[in-house]
Amino acid sequence: MYDFGPFKFESKQDFFDKAIRFWNPDKTRFWQKAGIDLVIGRREGYFLYDMSGRRLIDLHLNGGTYNLGHRNPELVETLKSALDYFDIGNHWFPSVARTALAESLVNVSPGMRYAIFAPGGAEAVDIAIKSARYATKRRKIVSIIKGYHGHSGLAVATGDDRFTKIFLSDQPETFIQVPFNDIDAMEKALKGEDVAALIVETIPATYGFPMPKDGYLNACKALCEKHGAMYIADEVQTGLMRTGSMWGWQAYGVQPDIMVTAKGLSGGLYPISAALVNDKAGGWLNEDGAAHISTTGGAELGCVVGHKVIEMLQRPELVANVGTVTEFMAQAMREMLVRHGDIFTGVRQKGVILGLEFSNHPEGAVFVSRALYEQGVWAIFSSLDKRVLQWKPGILLDHETCRDIMDRFDAAMPRARELLHQAGKAS
């Protein structure tokens, strides 16, 4: 018997049967087929515990949601204290918590004027797109092939075919896609001067963190200025100190007109996201502030947690630790490339954002993910490039855990070779 307070299951298989029956059949079966039988029970810091008690080091972090760790004690206490005073609040009225978080976000985001809140990243992307359309009086949106910006109506239309066609959400006449790092293709898309905005992840996460070429993002911004389009920086996975700067666009020296943050802003405790806009993009807030309404957007409990997150991220000791973890991982990966270069073929890194390339099989990272899972490390492969393993160490990791992670990586490689060999024979 597995007992989770009000939730009880006869066995792990009993749980899986019910997940298939009542929740999501395809997703549940997918992970079972991949050899990942994880059902998260207790979680603490950068550790997950399967419902059966097995411990895993979390290097997925749910896309950076657990940037500061699972159930960070300081954030848990912040939320508990907030419950003595706050609830979701009422979106119609000025709010102490919303205003405080908005001020905090604008203060750490040069060039931004207003913060507009949502429950999650996709809705924040919708707000960003609508704000750009308002400001430019244009409709078309340019995004990157294999980009990812969420699953709501407007956000999903900027993404990969996998997520659009199944719901009849592909709109090639309005949402144009160009290859990443191809500035000529970008100019061709923008030169008609009928585009409202370019939206781009500073480093495209679901595509496996390909790094922008030197000057690419700045050139994109210059083209936007030349042709009257707005530049939207999607910082959902690259923001909040993960590149070594508060925002990824700061690390690359590019100034957006609009930016989006989510995931880690919540501390993993209460959903919150935001679109930050400059004066022009935020003009509609002066014309009709109720043009966009979200009952739970900017929920006051989430704002209290988000405010504490921003405060924590500015602490000198945290900023220093990001640098320490960054350098440790860079050096450790150089050593692993020497030891396992037959299957491990490259590293893409900016701060604590890493994409590890296993390019001797089109789904190489799927098998590496399984091998790591068996060694007690959870790192997910990139959905849109399964040769690449997403490697997202937490920004508060200590040296001992960093060393443990790499020891387990080293130990997982023989099993990864075995799985890759089996996959090669099967194909």
UniProtKB/TrEMBL annotation:
<dbReference type="InterPro" id="IPR015421">
    <property type="entry name" value="PyrdxlP-dep_Trfase_major"/>
</dbReference>
<dbReference type="InterPro" id="IPR015422">
    <property type="entry name" value="PyrdxlP-dep_Trfase_small"/>
</dbReference>
<dbReference type="InterPro" id="IPR049704">
    <property type="entry name" value="Aminotrans_3_PPA_site"/>
</dbReference>
<keyword id="KW-0032">Aminotransferase</keyword>
<keyword id="KW-0808">Transferase</keyword>
<protein>
    <submittedName>
        <fullName>Aspartate aminotransferase family protein</fullName>
    </submittedName>
</protein>
<dbReference type="InterPro" id="IPR005814">
    <property type="entry name" value="Aminotrans_3"/>
</dbReference>
<dbReference type="Pfam" id="PF00202">
    <property type="entry name" value="Aminotran_3"/>
</dbReference>
<comment type="similarity">
    <text>Belongs to the class-III pyridoxal-phosphate-dependent aminotransferase family.</text>
</comment>
<dbReference type="InterPro" id="IPR050103">
    <property type="entry name" value="Class-III_PLP-dep_AT"/>
</dbReference>
<keyword id="KW-0663">Pyridoxal phosphate</keyword>
<dbReference type="GO" id="GO:0008483">
    <property type="term" value="F:transaminase activity"/>
</dbReference>
<dbReference type="InterPro" id="IPR015424">
    <property type="entry name" value="PyrdxlP-dep_Trfase"/>
</dbReference>
